[in-house]
Structures are given as C-alpha cells and as structure tokens.
C-alpha cells in the first residue's frame, strides 16, 4: 500500500507565533514529526506543505522529506485541510508519482509519536475500515465530569447517569489526540474528508497526549518533550 505522509505546517499561527519551528529540547518542533515519519518506513513519500519559507527550510534539512510551497489561498485561518490534501495529491501525481492508496496526516503541533505508532496505525487500515484516527483514553478529564451552563449558570451534566459515579466505574472514553489521521484514498476521493466512516481508533498511551494551540501548551511541551526524549516519561 502506497501511503502519502503529509505534514501541514502553516506559518501564520496567532496563538503561538512561529510554533512549528520554535525550538523545543534543542530542535524545531516540526522536526519531531519529520523524524517519526521518515523512520516509520511505511510512507512512500513524506511531504511538508507550508506557505512559510522558514518552515520549508527546516523540512529541506531532513533527508527523505519533500518541501512544498502552499498557495496563499490555502494558507488562511479558514483554509480546510482537506483542500490542502487535494492540492498536494494533484501536484504530486501530476508530476508522475504513482497513485497513492492512502493519506496519513501528521500534525506537527501534536509532536509526541514514535515511528512504531505510524506502523501500527497503518496495520489497522484493514478491509471494511476507511480511516484510522489516533486517540488517548481520558481519565479525570471525562464527559461525566463536564457540564453545560444553563440560565443563571445552572450546571447541566453531559452524562447525568454517571455524574456521581466513582472514576473507576465510569465507562472509558477516548479523545482524538491529533497525532495520526489515516484515510483510504477511495474514501477521501468519495467524500473529500479525512474522517471517513467507518473509522477505527488507534489507541496511544496517554503519555503521548500533547497538542499545542496556546502559550500554556508550549510551556508544557518543553517539560513533556524533554522527559520523553530522556526516557523519563
């Protein structure tokens, strides 16, 4: 199966400016995703799509990675990632690359993944499954502990039947950790979406849960990535 590994890395982050190439534990954040993608051995091509020259320069420094400039109309806050995937597919295959059977989307803002995670996720794309998405089990952060607020800020539980249950008695739930999105090509072509049904979960240990959107997340990233790289996590 020919799988395209696509890393979308737009340059215009407002929450954490320059986050994709900000150095964490001595190297650009983007590099952690590139290293895992190349080392996995399951991706026919690894492509970084960006509108930012500094990001593209980081990608070019990694062997086995192709840096592709993204058109300005696909680099806006509202630009859908599905359109970016389509643009990259059309560009690569238009240049004569063999047709891809699946696309694996790897977000650089969820950097904590190992090469074997990519290999194991690929193995879950079996007959009858159109997409595989990585998730982590949630424990204390659980819908049974969450509420909507009604009029007068009255609390309305999301799962009233489990609101007062002990943590160990609550049924497990899983959270998309943003690390791996894998979709079968036929399903993507038919629906134009990465989250094609039926979707299988690839469950990752919750120690790999890190998604960087805000400055607070970057502070946590410094500690978590250091512990991960030093084998303390």
State the gist of this model.
The protein has 233 residues and is α/β, with parallel strands linked by helices.
Portion in strands: 15-25%
The radius of gyration computed from the alpha-carbon positions, rounded to a whole number of angstroms, is 19 Å
The CATH homology group name: Spore Coat Polysaccharide Biosynthesis Protein SpsA, Chain A
* Count of DSSP strands: 11
SS content category: alpha/beta
Q: Fraction of residues in helices? A: 25-40%
Describe the structure.
The protein has six helices and eleven strands. It starts with a strand and ends with a helix. The chain has one domain (3-134, 175-229): Spore Coat Polysaccharide Biosynthesis Protein SpsA, Chain A, CATH 3.90.550.10. It is globular. The protein has helices at residues 29-40, 53-60, 81-94, 115-123, 185-191, 215-229, and strands spanning 3-8, 23-24, 27-28, 45-50, 65-69, 102-105, 131-138, 147-149, 155-157, 173-184, 199-203. A hairpin with a 2-residue loop joins strand 2 and strand 3 (27-28). It has 233 residues and is an alpha/beta fold.
Give the arrangement of secondary structure elements.
Layout (H helix, E strand, L loop, with lengths): L2 E6 L14 E2 L2 E2 H12 L4 E6 L2 H8 L4 E5 L11 H14 L7 E4 L9 H9 L7 E8 L8 E3 L5 E3 L15 E12 H7 L7 E5 L11 H15 L4
Parallel strand pairs: 1-4, 1-6, 4-5, 7-11
Antiparallel strand pairs: 2-3, 6-10, 7-10, 8-9
Helix pairs in contact: 1-4
């Amino acid at each position: 199966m020919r799988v395209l590994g696509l890393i979308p890395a737009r340059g215009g982050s407002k929450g954490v400016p320059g986050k994709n190439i900000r150095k964490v534990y001595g190297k650009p954040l983007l590099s952690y995703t590139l290293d895992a993608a190349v080392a996995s051995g399951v991706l026919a091509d690894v492509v970084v799509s960006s509108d930012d020259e500094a990001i593209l320069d980081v990608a070019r420094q990694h062997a086995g990675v192709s840096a592709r400039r993204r058109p300005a109309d696909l680099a806006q806050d509202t630009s859908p990632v599905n359109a970016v995937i389509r643009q990259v597919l059309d560009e690569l295959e238009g240049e004569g690359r063999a047709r891809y059977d699946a696309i694996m989307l790897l977000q650089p803002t969820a950097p904590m993944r190992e090469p074997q995670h990519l290999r194991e996720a690929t193995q879950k794309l079996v007959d009858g499954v159109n997409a595989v998405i990585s998730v982590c089990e949630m424990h204390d952060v659980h819908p049974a502990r969450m509420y909507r607020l009604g009029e007068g800020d009255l609390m309305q539980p999301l799962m009233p039947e489990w609101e007062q249950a002990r943590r160990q008695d609550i049924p497990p739930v899983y959270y998309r950790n943003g690390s791996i999105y894998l979709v079968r090509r036929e399903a993507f072509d038919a629906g134009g979406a990465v989250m094609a049904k039926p979707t299988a979960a690839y469950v990752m240990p919750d120690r790999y849960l890190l998604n960087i959107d805000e400055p607070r997340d970057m502070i946590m990233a410094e500690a978590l990535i250091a512990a991960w790289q030093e084998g303390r996590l």
